[in-house]
Amino acid sequence: MSKPIPHEVTPTAVWIAALELLARQAGAGSSSEDLHQRLVAVGRQLTGFDFCAVLLPDESGTQLLIRAWAGLDTFYVEQINSRNPLTLGSTARQSPSSRAYTSGVSVWVSDITQHADFTQWSGPARAQGYRTLLAVPLRAGDQIVGTFNCYNREVIAPDPQLRHLVEALTDFASAALEITRLRQAETGRVNQLENLNKELRDRQARDERSQELHRRLTDVALTNSDLAHLAHECAQMVGAGFLKIVDESGFVLAQAGSDSVEDLTPADSNSTVVLLHGEVAARIQAFGATLDPDMAARALEHAATVCALLLLRDRTAAEAEARFRDDLIGDLCSGDPERRTAARQRALRANLLVDEVQVVVMKDQSEVAAAQIDNSPLGRRMRSISSRRPRLVCGRLGDYWVALWPINEGAQDIAATLTQGAIGSRVHAVVAPAGGSEDLARAFRMARGALELGGSQAPLVRTIEDLGVVGLLLQLEDQRAVASFSDRVLGALRQSDLERSTDLILTLRTYLAHDCRADVSAQKLFVHKNTISQRLRRIEKLTGLSLASPSDVLQFSAALAADDIRSASAPSAMSE
């Protein structure tokens, strides 16, 4: 067995100088890793031991691992850390380092070969030639954070003075580490405060910018501007090369910028929806915006709010204008002279054309729900016609659209104006002349009756004169005389059809509509030709007229037309 040798203690002055160096390094703001490395270097120099190391617990707190060392073989460090880590906790046989860590008391092992608790770790240590070990707790404030170990190849007997000096060195290092920790925490807080200040300054700048954007957009709403002005202002604020406002159907309401739409892609755009009464009324799309994305999003949100206000204003104005014109048309075409006179004065005050006009009555023959008439192609076209010059009185009256048109424009001119709105082939109109504002009611009734009788036929716009005998009958002042004439000629046939369930009037109408050909009439009515001949003889007998006489055939045709006019003018067709 080797005999322990006395250890030579380093002079105090050298200790003091080394501690001053360690203190300066701690004061210079070194990291904990740097101080650990400085501690093992200074400890090896001062203690005279062959090797020194700092051991710290792993993340789980169950093992001690070598984190800094001086003089140790790298292979030994890797072998201990990976294969033979020093286990912490309450075990039957703890290593000296583990015992120093858990107990907080220094452990001196003069000869590891004679230490029973060193069996597990003596293999790697003996392979490196280590004999003596001194393990001192390493503290940070009141907590033990690791151990400072000194190793020597020669056996060294326990030396109270040396142990005291190493413990003092460790305490000094612990203080330096605590200072470093506090300095790092302080630096972290300073950095955190600087980051918070920067964030606050950035937020303040964004808020100021946002307020400026809001102010500019609010000015747009308060200065009676339109969507075009809003699009221009918004494009400038977000630095967009191109910006457009589109409605829910994709129709462009306003746009600003000069970039070619074909060169733009959705990936280059920022967009936001415009909500009105909880529904999407429009969408704002900005292409190639150069403003900060967050600020651009804020600007578009502000713009969407202003856009909703402008759309609401325009809709409210349009609805008020539509109600005004609808009421005006209803009064002008009514049978009440006082209502017509008052309506004419309102129209003149609004600078609307009401004298020297003709009445155009239009109807969409397709299946259009009542709630959708205003938003149908014909409805949108009629609302847009209201803004032409001279300003027309144009509005909705029940299922019809009625316009008072300049007397100097013919049917072709009216058709050209209507077809600009792509209103479709199922829309037809009839034009009736009016002798003056007091004659508008009669002209409306004529045009409405003609539209119901034959207005769904080509061309798009027809005049009363285009309807022949029907047109002449419609122009008669006393429609009761027309109805009486129809009853005199067709009354007996109508009575027969009612009592005997015959189809005499239908047969007569079909026979005359097909050039008085019995064979064609039979095909149309799906009966035998002899049946047609029998019905025709019955018609002649009941009416006392002959289908072989041109004058009697004219009477039949006029009576049928008069009957159609009476049906078209029934109260159910139009309430006034």
Automatic annotation (TrEMBL):
SMART domains, per database record: GAF
InterPro entries linked to this entry: CdaR-like_regulators (IPR051448), GAF (IPR003018), GAF-like_dom_sf (IPR029016), PucR_C-HTH_dom (IPR025736), PucR_C-HTH_sf (IPR042070)
SUPFAM superfamilies: GAF domain-like
Taxonomy, superkingdom: Bacteria
Coiled-coil residues: 183-213
Assigned keywords, A-Z: Coiled coil
Domain GAF: 31-187
Name of the protein: Helix-turn-helix domain-containing protein
